[in-house]
Design a protein that fits this description.
Blueprint lengths: L1 H20 L3 H11 L44 H7 L3 H49 L1 H6 L1 H38 L12
Helix pairs in contact: 4-6
């Protein structure tokens, strides 16, 4: 008993000393930041402290047509073609992006409505089948008299439900593909209706 008490006291003392001597994560991060030499040329790390504000950042998606950076370099001394490509109307470009976004929203909205309609039909068929099954199995006399007819109707209902389920799954797959195409076209997830 005495030995156990002594071990417990020694353990508590050691834990207290090690806890007091431990460096906090914040202190370690500050020390690492002080010791850090400038960014290396091989890898560039951007954070809020060194994010460039005077330069233009790249945007994911296809480049806009007529961008000054994508002007073809020619050996001719005629600067007229380069000047016309550099003079892009930002209002027209924004209107074009808005138009494309609206087209994608319309496509995605139509597909979502189709999915909702298929889901509603499937839900109604499943409810109707459950009600008919409950009525059939609830009455033993009806089950005995109409067993062949019930088997035929049961098979038909199950095949209808299965067909509607497959159509719903195909519509959901098509929606996923449309959302992926919209993402590849440069639409943001909030614009293409992808729920997270």
């Amino acid at each position: 008993m005495k030995y156990t008490k002594q071990m417990a006291i020694v353990t508590l003392l050691l834990l207290g000393v090690s806890g007091a001597a431990a460096q906090s994560l914040g202190d370690y991060a500050r020390a690492a930041r002080k010791n850090k030499t400038g960014p290396s040329a091989a890898s560039r790390h951007y954070d809020n402290d060194n994010l460039p504000t005077g330069q233009q950042l790249s945007v994911v998606g296809p480049p806009p047509t007529g961008d000054a950076n994508s002007a073809p370099e020619t050996g001719s001394e005629n600067p007229a073609p380069a000047a016309t490509t550099a003079a892009v109307d930002p209002v027209a470009a924004a209107a074009e992006r808005r138009k494309a976004a609206e087209e994608w929203k319309t496509k995605l909205g139509t597909q979502k409505e189709k999915i909702a309609a298929l889901n509603h039909e499937l839900d109604l068929d499943q409810r109707e089948y459950r009600l008919r099954a409950a009525a059939m199995y609830g009455d033993a006399g009806n089950r005995l008299r109409n067993a062949a007819q019930w088997d035929k109707e049961d098979t038909q209902y199950k095949s209808d439900i299965e067909g509607k389920q497959k159509a719903l799954d195909a519509a959901r797959q098509e929606l996923d593909e449309l959302q992926e195409q919209a993402r590849k076209a440069g639409m943001a997830d909030k614009d293409n209706g992808k729920d997270k």
